[in-house]
Protein translocase subunit SecE
Amino acid sequence: MSSQEVETVSTAADKAKLAVAALLIVGAIVAFYALSKQGPLAQWAALLLLLGGAVAAFLTAEQGKALIAYGRESARELRKVVWPTRKEAGQMTAYVFAFVVVMALFLWLTDKTLEWVFYDLILGWKR
């Protein structure tokens, strides 16, 4: 993450761009159903065209630019990740599997011990 703090101020133009994007989304949905008699090609063309306009309007607003910057910074951080080798991944998987088996045996043993204590010793129920 960047050490610089960015303070964003939402202007009237940004609010208008977001409102236009929202109206284009609603218009896309309305157009999709209104054009049902024209056939699926017209429906999907209108839907995709209006949704594309909504995305374009959103990406020109300050929030859209911030989203793009966040995506770029995330990709930059992802390139810094040191991924485990195949051998290390296999070893860690084996450790997790062994731990699960040990915990399953422990819980089974605890369950049987408590069952023996409560039913055989305290209540005297013999099976």
Q: What stands out?
A: Residues 86-122 form the longest helix (37 residues). The chain has two domains: 12-80, 84-127. The radius of gyration is 30 Å. The mean pLDDT is 91.
